Structure formats: structure tokens, C-alpha cells
Amino acid sequence: MPPTSVPLLAPYLYINDKVWGEPNDGMVAVGSSAWGDSAPDLWPADHADVIGHNLDNLPLGTPDRFDYLSKYDGIVNKLLAL
Predict the structure, then answer these.
(1) Cβ density class 9-38: b for 16+ within 10 Å, e for less
(2) CA 38/CA 69 separation, integer angstroms
(3) 50 Cβ partners below 8 Å, 6+ apart?
(4) How far is C-alpha 17 from the geometric centre of its chain's CA atoms?
(5) So where are the chain's domains?
(6) Cα(first)–Cα(last) distance of the chain, in Å?
(7) Which helix (H) or strand (E) holds 15?
(8) How far is CA 49 from CA 17, 25, 37, 79, 80, in A?
(9) pLDDT digits (tens, 9 = 90+) for 33-50
(10) CB neighbours of 27 closer than 8 A, spacing ≥ 6?
(11) Vertex 75: Cα angle to 70 and 80 (nearest 5)
């Protein structure tokens, strides 16, 4: 199974080649997703999955293996706790 959806596979491979195997979601390398000293929370999803689209499950398009809404709830809860 590819590490990202089929439409994002070419950019995934390009980024993987350019940043020496650094994980990416088909659009952004993990290293560029870090903010300050915090380590990024890696989600088992590609760039489309994290906004509620599954490019491999069209026409429905809803991610079937990744609960993206609960991830965003977690972000909001962390911000509220600050």
C-alpha cells in the first residue's frame, strides 16, 4: 500500500528524494511542519486526509481510516489549556 493517496504519490516521491527520505504527506515534509522547539504530532494521513478528503475513496471522499475531526479537537483542547 502506498504511503499516500495515488494522486499525491508523485509529489510524495519527489519530496522524499529531495529531503533524503524525510517522511512527508505528499505535500509537506515533516521537518517543515515543526513549530518552535515542539516535535510535530505525526498523523497517519496524507495531505488530503487531514482536511477530510480521501482521494483514494472517490466519489465519497471521506477518510475511512483516519478520524481527522478528533485530531482537530485535540489541537483546540491543547490551545484552550494554555
Answers:
(1) eebbeebbeeeeeeebbbeeeeeeeeeeee
(2) 22
(3) 25, 43, 66, 68, 71
(4) 18
(5) 6-81
(6) 39
(7) helix 9-18
(8) 22, 9, 26, 22, 25
(9) 777 777 677 888 888 888
(10) 8, 11, 15, 46, 47
(11) 120
Q: How far apart are CA 72 and CA 41, in angstroms?
A: 12
Grid coordinates of 60: 465519497
Residue type at 2 in one-letter notation: P
Q: Which amino acid is at 14?
A: Y
pLDDT at 1: 61
For residue range 57-80, list pLDDT tens digits in order. 777 766 677 888 999 999 999 999
Location of C-alpha cell 482521494: 55
